[in-house]
Amino acid sequence: MTLLGSIHLGVAAVVTAAAKPADSSAGVTGISVNPAADTDADGHIAAGQLNMRLDTVCVGCYDSNTLLDDPEMEPVVTIAVNESRVATIEVNRDENTTIKQSIGTVVNVVDRRTASIEVTLHDRDWGRLSEIDSQTMVIDVESPSADQNANSTTASAPRGLPPTGETRQTTHFRFRHDGLDRCGPICAEATGTVWTHDNATATNVSVKTQLRAGTTEFWSHERTIGTLSSNERQTTTQRVNPQFSALSAISRSDGRVALIVSINSTNYHEIIAYERNVSVSQF
Fold first, then answer.
1. Distance between CA atoms of 228 and 234, rounded to whole angstroms?
2. What burial class does residue 99 get, using C-beta atoms within 10 Å of its C-beta: 0-12 exposed, 13-18 middle, 19+ buried?
3. Quick one: which of 73, 91, 192, 259 has the fewest CB in 10 Å?
4. Nearest CA among 283, 208, 201, 200 for reference residue 249
């Protein structure tokens, strides 16, 4: 398992690609990646959360007075990576809303590369998307298994499951992998322990675990812990029972699976990311 010692985001630029009408208040108000995992602090992130902030309220701003136009905005967001659309998301009308996506489900994080992520807000009228506003963010990414050595340009994921008892740390938390036990033909129970360090107390703590093959997230689980006192340890066991679509995704990625552990609290939001080459039978 890879724990990050620091969080460093390599964001190159944010630009507005499409101008809004002068009387409009709707638009893409910001794009960011936070939290982000960058263990080797080289500016290439291995995992993170893409946050897209929007204003989606503007009644009648983009419609003429014809019978075929809808006077109320029906907001739709599209995400494109390196000019190729990867997602279309229906959103609610709101003056201030945020859409969140795992960066790994948008960008195929393998080795090192630069990704241009364009977020566009549209108004849907009778099945047609009319562009309202757009912003682009350029970020540098790399595989979780490459996120260990800033001098490495590529890395092969270790084979097999992580060693039982392996402990890694973020700035404020430690996480230990306590093993994986079989519970059926395609079923495993994973156990992990989280605690703070440096005599810190964290409040409103929750731990979210995700498994991903390529850009397909095939399993996730979130547990609320509450207050985590200084050096207090919380252990949890989670059942992993992938469906056929998950097994197909693992096969398509040649068995390369990323594990993302997000530890959130009132003051800290940190990510652990690591990658393994596994066989379907290990689940």
1. 8
2. middle
3. 91
4. 283
Residue 69 confidence (pLDDT): 58
What values do phi and psi take at 148, rounded to 5? -130, -30
* Spatial distance between the Cα atoms of 281 and 187, rounded to a whole number of angstroms: 9
Using only C-alpha atoms, what is the Rg of the chain? 21
d(CA 42, CA 152): 10
Any idea of the CA torsion for 36, 205, 237, 198, to the nearest 10 degrees? 80
Cis preceding linkage at 35, omega within 30? yes
Distances in Å between the alpha carbon of 2 and those of 5, 6, 146, 211, 277? 9, 12, 10, 14, 14
Q: Across 51-60, 80-89, 123-132, which has the greatest mean pLDDT? A: 80-89
The model's pTM = 0.81
Report the share of the chain in percent with pLDDT over 70. Answer: 86
**What's the token pair of residue 246?**
């998950």
Cα three-residue angle 149-153-159, rounded to 5 degrees? 70
Give me the torsion for CA of 209, 211, 215, 218, rounded to 10°.
-110
Highest averaged pLDDT of the listed ranges 72-76, 218-222, 263-267: 263-267
Whole-number Å distance between alpha carbons of 233 and 197: 10
Helix (H) / strand (E) containing 49: strand 47-55
Q: Number of helices (H) and strands (E) in the chain: give both, helices first.
A: 2, 16
pLDDT score of 18 more than 70: no
If one compares 15 and 167, the residue with the highest pLDDT of the two is 167
